[in-house]
Automatic annotation (TrEMBL):
Residues 108-357 form the Aminotransferase-like plant mobile domain. InterPro entries: AminoTfrase-like_pln_mobile, MAIN-like. This is Aminotransferase-like plant mobile domain-containing protein. It comes from the Eukaryota. One of its GO terms (biological process) is meristem maintenance.
Amino acid sequence: MTSTCMIRVQQPQVVRRRGADGRIPVRTLDWGASSSAAAAEPAGYPGGPYDTSLLVKYEHHVARHIWFGEERGPKKELKVAGHGLKLTSRVPLALPPQMESWVSRSGLSSLQRTSLNKIDTNLVSAFVERWHLETSSFHMSFGEMSITLDDVACLFHLPIRGIFWSPQDVTEELAVELAVDYLGVSQGQAQSHVRSCRGSYYKLEWLYDLFVHHRAASSWAYATRAYLLMLVGSTIFADKTFTLVEARYLLLFRDLDGCSGYSWGAAALVTLYRYLGDASMYSCKQLGGYPTLLQCWIHEYFPTVGKRGENWKPADNCGLPRAMRWSYRQGVLKVDDLQPILDELTPADVIWRPFEDHRA
């Protein structure tokens, strides 16, 4: 990872522009001709990579289907797991001091205020169409770009140094035990809830209710775990179910004093990479992870793309996470409007070092 946005420059190639109908026209060369030019034509996908040894899943990529006029669905854009409005009602302006100490030391406190209330699903979907899981990058017309740890650190002030630990998968039985031991519920209540989730999950609304209950009872450790699990389940670990969080993440909060040792920024980035890889496939209709991270990254690097709403100027609020700078503004551009705009982008349209005045 570099200190600025990563770019990999592609080798020179034939540039094919979109026509008036929004599609890039099929190459004029007759693929079935026996001429020497046809014989020299590289193998690969029309409108896609000539060398398929790296992009081995391109056959299932949404871009290949769009080339042939096959959209994801009638709306074309993805369904994106944004919980910003829910968090507005669930995150209190102030936590009890007994909880605030743990939350502050966890390294996750910035997530309480950084979520966009609404996500521009058309903008996000247009960029997802350019993501390739084999390279973990967006393939732009001028090269490849990716979200880096530096971006996560500046946008959200999440720690990017520390332990990188992926919680192991847990069974439904273990999910019940974890809820009893670390969320302070009875065995029967835990079993009933996990059974209703049809898997090793907890409902976000249930966690919020537990937080409220334990806070009223001054059970601070239980309240803090429920709160933090609800918080990460609504942000960096958001699930495509839109209502659940995986029970395995509760393992991260067994020791509330040790939460500060994790590289939460790395976990957020890896989770988003994984969901971007899923969403770049034609069969996928939803995007999990933290879409605020992706949209705010777009706003920082691509000032001419989409509709950016600004809450304040960076120079006036250098101590706040940069994601708090941005707000949702209703746009009029749909996915097929944005596709040709992204086609035409050049390096001159990119702010390559947006965070130089922020790192201090």
